[in-house]
Amino acid sequence: MVFRLRGPHNRVSRCPPNEHQCLGSDVCIHMSKLCNGVPDCTDGGEEGPHCREGALNCTLAGCQDNCAVTRTGSMCYCKSGYEIGQDGKTCKDFDECTIYGTCSQTCTNTDGSYACSCVEGYLVQPDNRSCKAKNVPVDRLPVLVIANSQNIQITSLSGSSSPSLYITTKQTTAMDFLYVQETVCWINVGDSPAGTHLKCAKITGLKSFIEERTINISLSLHHVEQMAIDWLTGNFYFVDDVDDRIFVCDKDGATCVTLLDQELYNPKGIALDPTMGKVFFTDYGQIPKVERCDMDGQNRTKLVDSKIVFPHGITLDLVNRLVYWADAYLDYIEVVDYEGKNRHTIIQGLLIEHLYGLTVFENYLYATNSDNANMQPKTSVIRVNRFNSSDYQVVTRVDKGGALHVYHQRRQPPVRSHACEPDQFGKAGGCSDICLLGNSHKSRTCRCRSGFSLGSDGKSCKKPEHELFLVYGKGRPGVIRGMDIKPKVQDEYMIPIENLMNPRALDFHAQSNFIYFADATSFLIGRQKIDGTERDIILKEGIHTVEGIAVDWMANNLYWTDDGPKKTISVARLEKASQTRKTLIEGKMTHPRAIVVDPRHGWMYWTDWEEDPKESKRGKIESAWMDGTNRKVLISHKTVLWPNGLSLDIPQGILYWVDAYYDRIDMIYLNNTGERKTVYDGPELSHAFGLCHYKNFLFWNEYRSGSIYKLDQVTKTVTLLRNERPPIFEIRMYDPQQQLGSNTCRANNGGCSSLCLATPTGRSCACAEDQLLDPSDNTSCKANPSYIPPPQCQPGEFACKNNRCIQERWKCDGDNDCLDNSDETAELCRKRKMLVIKFNCGLAVSNP
C-alpha cells in the first residue's frame, strides 16, 4: 500500500509508523518494500547499491521485529499496530487513535489495534469505523439547505431536489436554521440598510416554506456577512464584515448587544457550539486568523494565525470537537481541534477554489463555491469525504452560493437543560434583557440593551442615574460608537450611528439624548438619539468640510467650523437648522478644526492649524463671543502648529488642547493670569485627533493608530482603553453634568424669535442669512429683500449635486470626482463635447 501525505505542513503531516517517506515526495511506502528489488517510489531511490552494502548492518541491528535498509542506514520496524520505541529497537503499542480519521467518532486504543464506536444518536456502520446519524423522526432524512443570490433551496445530500422546496430571497448569503422549531432564517438584503431584514419561515415536514415573517432588529443587518443561531437559547449571532463586529440579538430581536468589536478587521464566518459554550469565527483582515471565544464574548483565543490568508467558511464537528475552515486564497480545507491543536489539511487545490460556505455531516464536508471569475452563471456545491479526499463530488449548482447547512437533528443536539431557561416570569435565565450562555451550556451572562447597566444582582437592567460614557467617530467603516471610560466594561451606552463615511466631528445634547455629527465626505450634519431612533439630516446645503461642531445646550444652537473655500464659523438652531443658519466669522483662518462653547460666559474657542512647519508658521487657538464679535487670538506659540482636539472645563476655567505635530497636551487658565502648562507629552502621543475630559482625567484618541487613551492628571498614569481600526476622529465625554447652568437664552430663547447668541454681557438676537433683525425691537426677524444667496462654488469650479466643488476641468474626464457621478452624466458630457466640436471648427463658443 502506498500512503500519500495529505498536507503542506510538515509539522502535522508525517508517515504512519513502519512506513518510509520517499525522498523529495509526499508518498509513504511500507518499510517492508525497501530494498525488495521493486522500485515503489517514483524515482526508485529506495532501491540501489545501499541495499547490498547495508544488509549486514541489519543482521547486527538487534531489532525486536524487523529491519529495513534505508539510504542512511539500517532501521528497525514493527508489525502492524506497533511502533519502534525510544531505543530504536524494541516495539511498543502504537496508538492509532492519535491519527486523524482512524475512526469517524470515538476511538479506543487496544494492544496492537484499536476499536471504533459511535456516540448516542449515531449507528456504527459495517466498516466498523463510520457512524451514521439516526433520523428524528425516523422518516425525516437529512437534507442540504443552500442560500444563493435568488433563493433558499432544499436539496438531498446527493443533489436531487424537489421544485417545491425553495423560497425566493434577495442577495442572501447569511442563513441558518432552528431544527427544534422547524424554521429557517436568513437575511434578505435590500438596496439600503432600511430595506435589509431578518426573515424566518417554517419548513414543517420539509414540504414547503410557510409562515414567512420578519424579525425587526435594532442594529443594521446590511453588512452582515454570516449568521448563526444558538439553538438552545434562540439567540441570533451576526458577523458584520464592514463595521467589523460580531453582535448578538435575542430570539425576538428586541435586544441586541455587541459581542466583539476589537481587533476584528474583516470577519467572515461563524459557527456555534452552545453545548460547550463556544463561538468560532474567521477573520481575514490585517492578521488572518481563526478564533474562539465563549458565547458571551469572554476568553477570546486565537486558534490559527499562520499559513492562512482568506479564511472564510467555518463549521464544527460537535462530536469530536473539531473546527473545519476553508481558505479562499490558498484553496484548502483544514481542521484543528477546539484548542487549536492537531492541524491537518483535508484537501487542497483547484477542485476547491474560492470556497465560501462550509458544513459537515457524518463523513462528509459540504461547501459552496463563490468564484464568478469564470463568468459561469452557476457556482458549485461540492461534497468531499473528510477522511478520504479522493471521494469528491459536485452535488449541485446554484447562483452565487452562500451559506449552506445540513438540516438534521444531530447538527443541533439538544441538552436536558441550560442556564438560559426561562424563569417563572418568562425571562430567559432570569435576565431583564438578554441571556447569553457562558463557557458552557450550564453558565450564563446577562447583558443589557443600549443605555442600561447591569444591576448588582447580575440580572436586572436599570437606567444609570448619571449617564457617563465616551463617544467617538471613526472611518473605514464610518461609524460613531459609545464606550465606557474604564477598559473591559461591556455595558453599551448607545446604538452605534452607522453607514457614515467620514464622521470627523461630533457633540451631544444631553436633554434630548441626541448625538450631533458632521460627515465631511457626505457634506452633511446629522443627528441620532443614543437609543438609535430619530436619525435625520439637519443640514445639507452649503456644507463643505465641517471639521468641528459644538452644541450650545442653553440656547439650543449648533456651532460648526467649515474648512471649505471661505473658512467659516457658523451657527444654527438645533431645530429648523436649515432655516436659521448664519455665518458668524469668515476668513483669516488656514484650517479651522475643533470648536467648543461656553454658553455660561458667552465665549467660544476654536483651533486653526497650519500645514507647513517651515517658514516660522504657527497654528493658533482663537476666541470670540458666541455672536462672532470680539474675535481675538488666544494662543499662537512656537509649539502650536497642528492644534487638533479641544476640551473646555467650564467650572475650573481651563481650556485643554492637543497638538498633533508636537505631540503634546497643553492647558491654559482662562482667568486673567492666562497661565499655560504642558499636561503631558509622553510616547503614547503620536498624532492625536480628539480630546475630552472628566474630572482629573483626560481622554484622547490617535488618528493613525486608532488607539484611545486615558490620562490621570494626578498620577500621570496613561491607560490604553481601546484599539480601533484607524482612522479615528473626534471624541467627546457624554456627561449631562457638563451641560447644566443657565443664561439669558435659556428661558424663552432670550426673547429672540430666531437665534439667541450668548455673550459675556447677556445675549444678542440674530437672524438667518436671508433675514434681517427688525430694528424696531432687535428681537424679531424679517425677510431681507436684497439678499443674494452665495454661489456654491468659486469661479473656475464645478458645482456637484452633492454640494461638493471640483475643478471645472475635471468634469467629463472619466473620473467620478464629485463622488456622486454628477460630473460625468451623459447630458452634461454631451453638451461639453458639442462645445469642443464648435471650438475646433472655429465657430464661436457660447453656452446654448
TrEMBL record:
Compartments reported by the entry: Membrane
Domain EGF-like, residue spans: 116-131
Disulfide bonds: C793-C805, C800-C818
Any GO BP: endocytosis
Membrane topology: Single-pass type I membrane protein
Keyword Transmembrane helix: yes
LDL-receptor class B repeat coordinates: 234-276, 277-320, 321-364, 513-555, 556-601, 602-652
Protein name: Low-density lipoprotein receptor-related protein 1-like
Organism: Triplophysa rosa
